[in-house]
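Recap from last week: sequence in, structure out.
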Amino acid sequence: MRKSSILAVLVLGLTGAIASVPVVADSTLYDDTGPISDISGSGLQPLGFWSAWRISIGNLVSDSFTVVSNSTVTGADFDVWILPGDTLTSVQWSIGTSTYGGTPATATITSLVAASNPTGDSGAFDIYVASIPIPDVSVSAGTTYWFTLQDAVTPINENVAFWDIGNGPSDAWDSNIGDVNGYSGTGTNSTTFQILGDTTSPVPEPSSILLLASGLAGLAGMVRRKQRG
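Predicted structure tokens:
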């Protein structure tokens, strides 16, 4: 068999193998924005009305999420309440399979943007969407995970920071209260956040599998004919 023929078959098989590699793309893995919990103009303060949960001064908040495909978490966005004139510089996060699970790690805030649809009493607090990087945490489809925030640092007002309530589909827990579902008014009282990362399709497309099989079968046939000759 000529070398050129062998090379052609190998290229065909390699092309099929490459095509069968799962497709990876940046995406929002989980969105827990939920409906807006608006108490603007009510005069009620967040600590009394519980429109946000404290994520500083020793208090932890943990919220559940699931993904539809095996994925790698690379970041997260969450809505945070801070006092006017202050900023959020860092926060500790963890991801685990139980409430408050996982190993806490400190993340520097990479983006702090005013929320386009702020909730709560905006006269008392400013509300931002904060972004943090997460260094490649693998999560499996259908498994319930818990995203936990704590030890938020706001340098001006002695670490006064709260995680916004959005009443999304998840189940949130506060380390001082426990399960907050229905704790303050109706709804889940869950927090506002998005889990970001790379979604991996675990099953190659049928056409890719067929291409790989055809290339390998052709290679095997040529090898057999050479041996007979």
